[in-house]
Design brief:
The protein is 80% helix and 0% strand. It is mostly helical.
């Protein structure tokens, strides 16, 4: 995992943790981080 990918995962985790409603934010965070990871494929 490269730095960019690690940063994307960390940002997604922080986004969920800081949310007032983590259950609704989690799918969006996974989608956002996943999009960055799929760019490399």
């Amino acid at each position: 995992m490269e730095i960019r990918e690690s940063g994307a995962a960390l940002n997604a985790a922080l986004w969920v943790a800081a949310s007032e409603n983590p259950q609704s934010v989690l799918p969006k965070a996974v989608e956002a981080a996943g999009g960055l990871l799929l760019e490399r494929l």
